[in-house]
Design a protein that fits this description.
heterodimer, A: alpha+beta, Butyryl-CoA Dehydrogenase, subunit A, domain 2, Butyryl-CoA Dehydrogenase, subunit A, domain 3, 2 domains, seven-stranded mixed beta sheet, B: 3 domains, four-stranded mixed beta sheet, four-stranded antiparallel beta sheet
Chain lengths: ~350, ~400
């Protein structure tokens, strides 16, 4: 299907071709070279307006970039920057750091925000405490921290923190992507108060970003598995000729197609500027549920080679196993969706379902 | 991913949302008046000709057909909204369901002008009901192996002998579109697709007997329909002699693509929603969220098919995929709910959740069988993946 995003996808693919995915370690926790190439091409500012220092372009462009990078197991914080932290800062009226410096988002942990007058005008906050499960902690130069507003004030504070010199723990997810803590030292930072609805929207954007990545990764895992089944011969014929394998691949295709349809619809909901919390919750939960089936069957079809770091499959299956519980676990978002659909009581379930996306 | 599986997203339709509101108001009024009570799987078991006629009066049958045949020239997206609302309410839609869903579209595609003029307006009025004449006692998934045969007699009429089975609601229906063998099979693995023909059969003709088959809950919806030297007028050939396999494939795209392939057990999910709202139980709310996420994805897949139908496509492979994923979901609704709620399933229970669970459980084996088993469907999806 031709789309307006074909050009940007081609550009990202060309850059990716020069950067094979690798097993992430504490010593090499991200792909700095890939980030530099993407930044040089202006791709780390897409979807963010030019007047704010971004590269311009539509949400659809930013989504296409995040999808292409996710399918390529790219170890760079582009989804966090283009789909979550960047738009959240702009929506809160805060300045964007240079898109060439990696920016991430932090929504978990025990962080206290206090307003401060440091002589730099209004909208200055000190953040103290520990932000946990921070994607690309130790890699990102800036982090948009979302935390509860000071006692007595409803809502949340979103503040832009420079990570230079902050202590970082070395926790990583199942794929080795950095997910450590950041100890916030209380240096004054630009920040803004968000209503509970606005804060909820930031969390939903984060969940939707992971759902977008999951959809792309699951599609690629299916493609790899179909291709492998066509090439690998046993008993004198390709695996894909066995009916048992065909049933497994068809089941995978059903899951992947369902995920893509719902994630696309949730992205469109976001693009129309409608309330995206339940749409994002549904997309995240559906994508996570598909991981169970798709990753399991992909490994089953690939056999022992897929269980090794010599084969590429793990780059995506390990990410999928983590992403489904990041940006809010699958259980958390399932409850958010369940509760949200019953806002108007048990009798309101069906009308609520037809309004989500 | 392979483009034969993936369809473009459905554009939003204001017209569909308008008619959705109208159907919702109609259903609320009917329920308030006690016209019907909600049940699981009512597109199989809820036969109510008076209700079907009411839908016809409101223009909600034959919605996409040309006005000259009693249709309303509305979009597949609007029809989708109507059917979805009816199913979600567990309304009694079985009488007209097959005729409106696939027989009418089949007649529109392949019927003669006389056949269309005679029958389509009556279907759109909710007065004329159809059965599917595909499966036979010895031919289930292997549909092309059917043995019911028809031969021309000296008057040019068809003489039909054989038997069809699992014929839902034949005892309430007027016509069947019956797949028969009229010629010898050809050579090769797909040779038996040749020599098949569809006939439009009036079920009141002499020589037809309709024998009930009861399903697990004791309900009589299925039948065996036996044809003994049934003389079908020559002009009741549907489409082309020998093109039956091609026509059946098109008919199955309509049969497999609608929201009834994931909403058969929605009335149970609705009862569960009421329970979770009352209890506020965290596990129940999470289960409701998980099941709802699956349902929402299926809606998007089904809406994409409706949009494809509006573009004039006949997406048989995506339809097979949606039906596989959707009917699996229908059964999982039962399993997931009973994991987080204390239940005592019984058709006689005073508790609506127990009752809905009992209905859904006893109908469950059918979800992944009717309209093509999920194994057959996955074979079709595998073909879409380029594996066969």
């Amino acid at each position: 299907m031709a789309s307006d995003q074909d050009l940007v996808v081609e550009t990202v693919r060309d850059i990716l071709a020069g950067h094979e995915p690798f097993a992430l370690t504490a010593e090499r926790p991200w792909d700095a070279g890939l980030w530099a190439d993407l930044a040089e091409a202006g791709l780390t500012g897409v979807g963010l307006p030019e007047e704010a220092g971004g590269s311009g372009g539509e949400l659809a462009d930013a989504i296409a970039i995040a999808r292409t990078l996710a399918a390529g197991a790219a170890a760079v914080p582009v989804a966090e920057q283009l789909l979550v932290a960047g738009p959240a800062l702009l929506a809160a009226g805060l300045d964007l750091p240079s898109p060439e410096e990696p920016l991430t988002i932090a929504v978990e942990g025990a962080v206290t925000a206090e307003p401060v007058d440091d002589g730099d005008g209004p909208g200055r906050w000190t953040l103290t405490g520990t932000a946990t499960d921070v994607a690309w902690a130790g890699v990102a130069r800036h982090v948009a921290v979302l935390t509860a507003a000071p006692e007595g004030i409803e809502g949340a504070v979103l503040a832009l923190v420079d990570t230079e010199g902050l202590a970082t723990s070395d926790a990583r997810n199942l794929a080795g992507e950095p997910r450590g803590s950041l100890v916030l030292g209380g240096a004054p930072a630009a920040g803004a108060l968000l209503t509970p609805a606005r804060a909820g929207e930031v969390r939903a954007r984060y969940a939707l970003a992971r759902a977008v990545q999951l959809a792309a990764a699951l599609e690629r895992v299916l493609a790899w598995t179909v291709q492998y089944a066509g090439e690998r011969q046993q008993f004198g014929r390709p695996l894909g000729k066995f009916q048992a394998i065909q049933m497994e691949l068809a089941e995978m295709a059903g899951e992947v197609t369902a995920v893509t349809a719902l994630v696309d619809a949730a992205v469109q909901t976001l693009g129309r500027g409608e309330d995206v919390v339940l749409a994002a919750a549904a997309a995240k939960v559906r994508a996570g549920a598909a991981v169970e089936v798709v990753a399991r069957l992909a490994h089953q079809v690939h056999g022992a080679i897929g269980f090794t770091q010599e084969h590429k499959l793990h780059h995506l299956t390990r990410r999928c196993w983590s992403w489904r519980d990041e940006a809010g676990s699958e259980l958390t978002w399932s409850r958010v969706l369940g509760v949200g659909l019953l806002t108007e009581g048990g009798d309101g379930l069906w009308p609520a379902l037809t309004r989500v996306v | 991913m392979s483009s034969s599986l993936t369809l473009a997203p459905a554009p939003p339709s204001e017209a569909a949302e308008e008619v959705r509101t109208q159907v919702r108001e109609f259903l609320a009024a009917e329920q308030a008046a006690g016209t019907f009570s909600t049940h699981v799987d009512t597109w199989l078991s809820g036969v109510d000709p008076a209700f079907s006629r009411k839908l016809g009066e409101r223009g909600w049958l034959g919605m996409t057909w040309p006005k000259e045949y009693g249709g309303h020239e509305r979009s597949a997206m609007e029809r989708y909204a109507v059917t979805e609302e009816l199913l979600a309410a567990g309304a009694p839609v079985a009488a007209h369901w097959i005729a409106d869903r696939q027989s009418g579209p089949n007649l529109l595609r392949y019927g003669t002008e006389v056949q269309r003029q005679e029958i389509l307006p009556r279907i759109a009025a909710g007065e004329c009901y159809f059965v599917i004449g595909m499966s036979e006692p010895d031919s289930g998934s292997d549909l092309a192996s059917i043995r019911t045969r028809a031969a021309r007699n000296g008057d040019g009429d068809w003489v039909v002998n054989g038997a069809k089975i699992w014929t839902s609601n034949a005892h309430h229906s007027h016509y069947g579109i019956v797949l028969v063998r009229t010629g010898p099979p050809g050579e090769g693995p797909r040779g038996k697709h040749q020599g098949l023909t569809q006939l439009l059969v009036d079920l009141s003709l002499p020589g037809i007997s309709i024998n009930p088959i009861r399903i697990l809950d004791g309900g009589h919806h299925f039948n065996e329909v036996v044809f003994e030297d049934v003389v079908v007028p020559g002009d009741m050939l549907l489409g082309e002699e020998g093109a039956g396999w091609h026509q059946v494939t098109a008919e199955l795209a309509f049969e497999r693509s609608g929201p009834e392939r994931f909403l058969s057990t929605y009335p149970l999910l609705a009862e569960f929603g009421r329970r979770a709202a009352d209890s506020g139980d965290a596990a129940q709310l999470a289960t409701l969220g998980r099941l709802s996420a699956r349902l929402l994805a299926l809606r998007q897949l089904s809406l994409r098919i409706a949009a494809a139908l509006d573009r004039g496509e006949l997406p048989d492979i995506p339809a097979a995929l949606v039906k596989d994923v959707g009917t699996t979901f229908e059964g999982d609704v039962v399993d997931e709910i009973r994991r987080v709620v204390e239940v005592t399933p019984s058709l006689d229970s005073p508790d609506p959740l127990d009752r809905a669970l009992a209905e859904a459980q006893l109908h469950a084996p059918g979800y992944t069988l009717r309209g093509g088993t999920n194994e057959i469907l996955r074979g079709i999806v595998a073909r879409g993946l380029g594996l066969r």
